[in-house]
Amino acid sequence: MTVDTRSVLLHLGLIALLIVLGLVLPTYHQGNLARILVLATYAIGFNVLFGYTGLLSLGHAMFFAAGMYGCGLAMHLGGWPVLSALGAGIIAAAVLSLIVALLALRTIGVAFMIVTLMFAQAFFLTALYLGEWTGGDEGFVIAQASRQIAGFALTDPLTRFFAALAVFSVALLITARMMHLPFGRVLIGVRENEERTRMLGYDTFRHKLLAVIISGTISGGAGAAYAVLFGYVGATFASVQYSIFPLLWVLLGGMGTTIGPLIGVAFMFYLIDYASGLTNAYLLIVGAALVLLTLFARAGIVGEIRKRWVPWLP
Amino acid sequence: MSLLLETKGLTRIYGGLRAVDGVDYTLAKGEIHALIGPNGAGKSTFVGMVSGRIPASEGEVWFEGQNITALPAHTRIRQGMAYTFQITAIYARLSLFDNVALALGRQDRTDVLGALDRVGLADRAMQTAGDLAYGHQRLLEIAMGVAQAPRLLILDEPTQGLAESEIEGFNTLIRSLAGDTTILLIEHNMQVVMALADEITVLDAGKILARGTPQDIHANADVQNAYLGTG
Predict the structure, then answer these.
(1) By CB atoms within 10 Å of each CB, which of A53, A249, B38, B191 scores lowest?
(2) Chain A CA closest to residue B48
(3) B-chain residues near A204 (CB < 8 A)
(4) What's the domain count of chain B?
(5) What integer best gives the mean pLDDT of chain B?
(6) Which of A249, A197, A262 is nearest to A61 (CA)?
(7) Is position B79 within any domain?
(8) Cβ contact B188:B116 at 8 Å
(9) B99 located within any domain
(10) Model confidence over A47-100: pLDDT tens digits?
(11) How far is CA A231 from the centre of its chain?
(12) Which helix (H) or strand (E) holds B20?
């Protein structure tokens, strides 16, 4: 069996497993899993830039939030139907990532981290400043009646789960395929040794530019989906906290692996869920678990599995 | 014979230092040309400007009759140059296969293994490049340059760190390329230079000190003083 076939089977198998989980899990976990899948889509977007291209952005919340506001405002203020609003959110994130990429990619390393962080802060403060429309800190709720596609109510737990799974699957399959194509291999080349890659005849700036746009657009798609599926849009999602989350998820799950983002989000989600059932000081338990993982599984969960047992994992 | 490469007054200034100082240079198609000179003579800076890695302060670079001075490095590479680094610059965490596939621009198994076979590394294709011995990493770097099937192959000290037996293999490989590929070679190992080069240019303090056949250069008194010693 070739690596290609194994990789296709892995991704389709994962999606099949998620379909089964969605059907058999109780409603509580079904809802959790829907949220995990949308956040994992965000993490997949982040991973394109951080895990595969080697560029650490500390401002990805602005792309997530651009998708969220683009979609949410189109529905809330413009009364757009769900699909057009999702499109608006995705376009908003794509445009923002193009602008940010053109400016931020003039820097490298730590400067790139700081520039993206500053852009995200500016976005966050703008969202607060325009409180008349965005609802500022409090945000706004998207009317339940409008959250439906062709008669399917996205407020129904099972429908919502499958919508979330569809969004996640699209992002997963796009990135998995991309990393097999020459374009994706060049991104890995940029991560490993940008100068060498340039001196092999690749326009590394253009590749990084596209990586930021793809990464930001997937993140924005996740934000738009979040608005539609959970019916709430707020400035918290543009805050620095939401820029750090995808970094943690990807580090935990395994940077530069296709399924790592999902594993990272699920792990952290249920770690918090479980720890907060034990004690009020649940962040202490979460913190300890993160420290242990960083000490003993530095490549993240999937990264470590790949290193030790399954070298072909994409 | 027609020219593949020409530089006119090529200069690079670092602070107050003219690392390369007004070099007029020509390279004919199909030739193996060695660039020698003491450390700090400006050899790597010179080929850096030819490949576009280092921007020229003054002067022009012409490749196949076209002024390419303003073109970025990746465009020059696309036009038929390949460049191997003095300090090994392979993808240490990727497999040999992936290294060569990136150089080729495609994942064609036959082509990748063929390129590795030319330096005797085909049986190690799935190993991680960083785990190779240093000499083998040099060979991989050369394989990546050759894989691009360039018209001009620039090799910056390719035999540094190679064992005697590997140097033999390297010489054979370079001779097999000659004709189709023009080779510009920076090299300290004079045995390699004498064995391979059709012509030699000696660079000293950023300027061309002498140019000629290996015999001319060996007999040149200035070169002996500056570089070769009396051997």
Answers:
(1) B191
(2) A199
(3) 74
(4) 1
(5) 91
(6) A249
(7) no
(8) no
(9) yes
(10) 999 999 999 999 999 999 999 999 999 999 999 999 999 999 999 999 999 999
(11) 18
(12) strand B17-28
**How far apart (Å, rounded) are the C-alpha atoms in residues B47 and B10?**
11
Q: Do B190 and B217 contact (CB within 8 A), yes or no?
A: no
The parent domain of residue B103 ranges over: 90-141
CA distance A249 to A231: 23
Mean pLDDT over residues B50-61, rounded?
95
**pLDDT of B229:** 58
Residue-wise pLDDT tens digits, B63-119: 999 999 999 999 999 999 999 988 888 999 999 999 999 999 988 899 999 999 999
Check the CA dihedral A64-A69-A72-A74 and report its sign: negative
Over range B119-145, report the average pLDDT. Answer: 92
Q: Three-class SS of residue B201? A: strand
| Selection from A123, A116, A81 nearest residue A102 by Cα | A116
In angstroms, how far is CA A146 from the centroid of its own chain? Answer: 25
Give the pLDDT band of residue A204 (cuts 50, 70, 90): very high
Query: What is d(CA A192, CA B92) in angstroms, rounded to the nearest whole number?
Result: 8
Give the residue carrying structure tokens 């189109």. A74
Tell me the residues of chain B between 83 and 102 that have a Cβ less than 8 Å away from chain A: 83, 85, 89-94, 98, 101-102
- Residue A236 and residue A244: Cα distance in Å, rounded? 13
Q: Which of A204, A184, A183 is nearest to A194 (CA)?
A: A204
**Would the pLDDT of B230 be above 80?**
no
- Residue among B116, B86, B87 at smallest CA distance from B99: B116
* 8 Å CB contact of A199 and B90: no
CB atoms within 10 A of CB A289: 17
Domain boundaries, chain A: 3-238
B154 pLDDT above the threshold of 90: yes
A152 has pLDDT over 80: yes
Number of Cβ within 10 Å of residue A271's Cβ equals: 17
Supply the pLDDT for residue B180.
85
- Is the model's pLDDT at A190 over the cut of 50? yes
Nearest residue to A186 via CA among A64, A54, A95: A54
Q: pLDDT > 90: what percent of chain A?
A: 82
CA B76 to chain A, closest CA, distance in angstroms equals 7
In the predicted model, is pLDDT for residue B231 greater than 60?
A: no
Residues 125 through 154 of chain B touching chain A, CB cutoff 8 Å:
144, 148
CA distances from B100 to A160, B52, B108, B184, B187 (A): 45, 22, 10, 21, 24
Look at residue B160 and tell me if it is in a domain.
no
ipTM: 0.90
Q: How many CA atoms does the CB half-sphere of A212 hold within 13 Å?
A: 27
Is B57 domain-assigned? no
